[in-house]
Amino acid sequence: MIDREFVEQKLKLIKADLEELRREKPPHWEVFLEDSRTRHVTEHLLEHIVNRAIDINSHLLVESGKAPPDTYEDSFLKLAEFGVLTAKFAGEVAKSAGLRNRLIHEYDGIRYDVLYDAISDAVREYPQYIEAITKFIATHK
């Protein structure tokens, strides 16, 4: 059974993180590159946003009787198979799981240009994610 309270709380936290991410993004790449504090905060916010979405994805799948995702990226793609997200959008937002892995595990170091671009991606994509999840839980009790 889907725990609406759990999902809604995670969505609320994602929204708050998105607002902070919008405030933290410097207007220019050069400023971002020079400001280690902003880079650190950005990394932290992006990790939290993606982790919370993965938690939601896994919860929705498992509690709806679907197999758990094999990977974090797969958690988004399986939501498309389940009809929660469109296939195109799921493919786009699933890329954030790869970024999350690179940030947490520091694979090949952190490329700040990728991190800077990820801010815009998250601010554009995650409100759509929130809308889709909200719609889904409203229709599945």
Structure description:
- By secondary structure, the chain is mainly alpha-helical.
- The chain has a single domain, classed as Four Helix Bundle (Hemerythrin (Met), subunit A).
- Helix content is about 80%, strand content about 0%.
- The mean pLDDT is about 90.
Short recap of the structure:
The protein has helices spanning 4-24, 29-34, 36-63, 72-81, 87-105, 112-139. Helix 1 packs antiparallel against helix 6 (112-139), helix 3 runs parallel beside helix 6 (112-139) and helix 4 packs antiparallel against helix 5. It is mainly α and 141 residues long.
Largest sheet: none
What's the number of extended β-strand segments?
Answer: 0
Which structural class fits the helix and strand makeup? mainly alpha
Low-confidence stretches: none
Residue fraction in strands = under 5%
**Structural Rg:** 15 Å
Q: Order of helices and strands, N to C? A: HHHHHH
CATH fold-level label: Four Helix Bundle (Hemerythrin (Met), subunit A)
Distance between the termini: 8 Å
Average residue pLDDT: 91
- CATH class category label: Mainly Alpha
Q: Count of DSSP helices?
A: 6
Mass-distribution shape: elongated
Percent helix = over 70%
Overall number of structural domains: 1
